[in-house]
Predict the structure of CopG family transcriptional regulator.
Amino acid sequence: MARIDLPDVPDDVHATLAAGAEAAGQPLAAFVVDRLVEITRPGTLADYLATYQPSDTGLTIEDAVAAVRQGRDTDWPADHLTRARLLAAIERLET
C-alpha cells in the first residue's frame, strides 16, 4: 500500500480526527485511512441506504428520495451516489 505524509494539518483538524479515532477505538492512522476511503469510493444507492441512519435534520426518507431522483435526473450517473452529491441535492430542495 502507498504511504502518505500529511504535514501542516491544522491543530483543530488533528484534534477532531484524534477524538474520532478514540471514540471509534482505532489508531489515528487507521481512522484517517477509513475516512479517506469513505470519501473517495463512490457507493451505489443501495450501499448508502443500507447504512443510512437518520439524524435530527427534520428531513424524511421521502425528502432524501426526492433529492436523489432530482440529482439523478439532472446530472448524476444512475448507479453511483456520493454523500456530497446527496447532501448537495438535499440542500437544493431546501432552498
Remarks:
- The mean pLDDT is 82.
- Residues 45-94 form one domain.
- The first helix runs from residue 11 to 24.
